[in-house]
Fold:
Amino acid sequence: MKTSLVILAAGIGSRFGGGIKQLEHMGPNGEIIMHYSIHDALEAGFDRVVFIIRRDIEQDFKEIIGNDMEKVCPCTYVFQSIDDLPDGYSVPEGRTKPWGTAQALLACRGVVNEPFIVINADDYYGKEGFKLIHDYLVENCTPESKNFCMAGYVLENTLSENGGVSRGVCKTDADSNLIAVTETHNITKTKCGAAVPDGDAWKEIDPRSHVSMNMWGLTPALIETLYERFPAFLDGMKEGDIKSEYLLPAEIDKMIKAGEATVKLLPTDDKWFGVTYKEDKPAVVASIQKLIQEGVYPSPLF
Structure:
């Protein structure tokens, strides 16, 4: 069965310290984090890459990564747009950003017709998650099924040394099926593990908790459900709201609680890293160099 890697890259262009963080060179030959994700996905068995981008960055995106990747594997481009709305709806005055990760996936409707993995453009996930999700999709899923999966990362393996991060803290049943994902903000690394602000104090969080890093194994049935529910999301927005987003984790959470889908948590001990803060870059560069020295990656990568 064919499977695809879908990369959420429409957010490229949000700047940190004068640079575009998703396109910062991290490898010794100018590789960016996306290069490593694509390498790991292809190695795991995924057949093609689908980039979700914005029209206004298409040319630059292809020059920086797309043209090179087209020599390695089949690549498809789809476009997230702020005005890609159901009939009868329009962009509220003052809104400048697209509608979030669930709306981004709607750009894949009719293009991705096979089970797929979806990831963020600027996160390094490690190899294990790609392999776990690929094998689960092949063994358990059809395009019409709503039995999904996600890579569950250990919280302490996903923290930044340079400030708080947002993570989806997972709750599962005895069979490792996801019950809920609680979006938790400003999780900070501490001497004891991890904690979040709680009024004037700090509340500890189990550093061995599993969290979502937005690495999901999904099917086209999910895209159809998101398409059907988008009008209800828009109707539920309050007048004058120009910031609410149609988010993938929240919609999957609703499906789970309504008994419309199952999500198997596939635990991985791989260490995540990314550039949440400008100060994260040296650690990412050093981590990749270490992986190269250990023989995990060739250099150059492709």
